[in-house]
Fold this protein.
Amino acid sequence: MTDHFSFSVVCLIVRKHICIGPLLSLFGSAFQLEGEKNKLENLLKNNLMKRKDRILLELQEDSEEDRKNKLEMYKAELESVSQRISGDVARFKGTAIQASAICFGSKLFDL
């Protein structure tokens, strides 16, 4: 019985050493891989944040460029409308002068 007990104890110790060795190695590898994973996640997050900032800046620049283009378009439209108004005012003045001349002329004939 003692031989069987000793053999069992030896087998248990050997099994634990055999089982513990690879487990310790696995845990070491797991910790190393976890560290690498965290490092890669941080790099990815930092790169994505930089990319996000760059894209937002590009969108802002595009918006500024769009605003400049719209401003130029509105300035051109304002100039065109101002010229048309000036033309209409000149025609109105001419028409008013002609109307006054006609009215004045007809009053002359009435006298």
User: Anything to note?
Assistant: The chain is about 100% helix and 0% strand. The radius of gyration is 47 Å. The chain has a mean pLDDT of 78.
